[in-house]
From TrEMBL:
One of the Pfam families matching this protein, by short name: MTS
EC number: 2.1.1.297
PANTHER family reported in the protein's UniProt record: HEMK METHYLTRANSFERASE, MTRF1L RELEASE FACTOR GLUTAMINE METHYLTRANSFERASE
Protein name as annotated: peptide chain release factor N(5)-glutamine methyltransferase
Keywords for this protein: Methyltransferase, S-adenosyl-L-methionine, Transferase
Gene3D superfamilies reported in the protein's UniProt record: DNA helicase RuvA subunit, C-terminal domain, Vaccinia Virus protein VP39
Catalysed reactions, as listed in the record: L-glutaminyl-[peptide chain release factor] + S-adenosyl-L-methionine = N(5)-methyl-L-glutaminyl-[peptide chain release factor] + S-adenosyl-L-homocysteine + H(+)
Organism domain of life: Bacteria
Domain Methyltransferase small: residue ranges: 119-194
UniProt GO molecular function: methyltransferase activity
Biological processes, Gene Ontology terms: methylation
Length: 273
């Protein structure tokens, strides 16, 4: 098959770019060449539902590339709104000193640095998976202390690798949820209802399921954060969980606000304890 035919196939361009190690422009300029034989094996595997991110051990999140492998959840674009919300809280409300990155010109550089009880502001990313949330926040706010936890050995291994790749200093801890104090709790926990089918057979069940209504782990995280005297929590949830979670939050926290993703579906909640 010639490159020009492969370019018309779903994921064809991405597979070729990775295999030949050339960009899209090169592929178009050389589209009369034959594709390498490995192309077909990979293309068929992806067509049968194997995640392409696991084939090339790479995923993009918030404009940066991360390592990922089978057994660890592939970060989703929707989770970027959780990160955005945390960056906004740190920048606009808490006025923490930030580092300006080209990819997001919205953030203003502030010269103030928030210190709580004369100590560094501390964020705990519970259920960190590949570490993308914790690492992105640390890149924007290098002065804050970031701790990331996960119950899975594989996730902690991948997250550590990603922190090294992006040269950020994060404390990783393998544990059930979290047990240390902090100021802001952030999490994309498992929140899928047990009765829902999995998107594929290759990502781990433990990354998805959160009980009958999906909120078992979310509720536990909120109670722990409250008991450990966190000031804020930002948690990803499902589009249909607002009502159940509102009832739970009503008498437990000072304020809470649900926020939406780009498709205008409910995607998370920000809590002030
Ligand atoms: C939905 S994934 C999120 C991963 C990553 N934060 C992201 O957004 O791509 C949930 C993660 O929670 C972890 N997890 C599940 N139960 C846990 C528990 N009881 N304590 C800590 N981590 C847990 C899973 O291993 C998985 O990595």
């Amino acid at each position: 098959m010639k490159i020009k035919e492969a370019l018309k196939l779903k994921n064809g361009s991405y597979i070729l770019e990775k295999l030949i190690n050339k960009d899209k422009a090169w592929l178009f300029l050389n589209d009369e060449l034959e594709v390498p034989s490995e192309f077909f094996k990979i293309y068929e595997k992806v067509k049968r539902g194997y995640p392409i991110e696991y084939i090339f051990n790479e995923v993009e999140f918030y404009g940066k590339k991360y390592y990922v492998k089978e057994g660890v959840l592939i970060p989703r674009d929707d989770t970027e709104v959780i990160v955005e919300r945390a960056l906004k809280l740190l920048d606009e409300e808490l006025k923490v000193k930030s580092k300006k990155f080209k990819i997001n010109e919205k953030l203003n550089v502030k010269n103030e640095k928030l210190e709580i009880n004369n100590e560094k502001l501390k964020i705990v990313d519970c259920c960190t998976g590949s570490g993308v949330i914790a690492i992105t926040i640390k890149q924007y706010f290098p002065d804050i202390e970031v701790v990331a936890t996960d119950i899975s050995d594989k996730a902690i291994e991948v997250a550590k690798k990603n922190a090294k790749l992006h040269d950020v200093d994060i404390k990783f801890k393998k544990c059930n949820l979290f047990d240390e104090k902090g100021d802001i709790l952030i999490s994309n926990p498992p929140y899928v209802e047990n009765s829902y089918p999995k998107p594929n057979d290759y990502e781990p069940d433990i990354a998805f399921y959160g009980g009958v209504d999906g909120l078992d782990i979310v509720r536990e995280i909120i109670l722990r954060a409250k008991n450990l005297e966190y000031k804020y929590a930002i948690i990803e949830i499902g589009y249909n969980q607002k009502e159940n979670l509102s009832k739970f939050l009503e008498d437990k926290v000072k304020e809470y606000e649900f926020f939406k993703d780009l498709a205008r579906n409910i995607r998370g909640v920000e809590i002030k304890f």
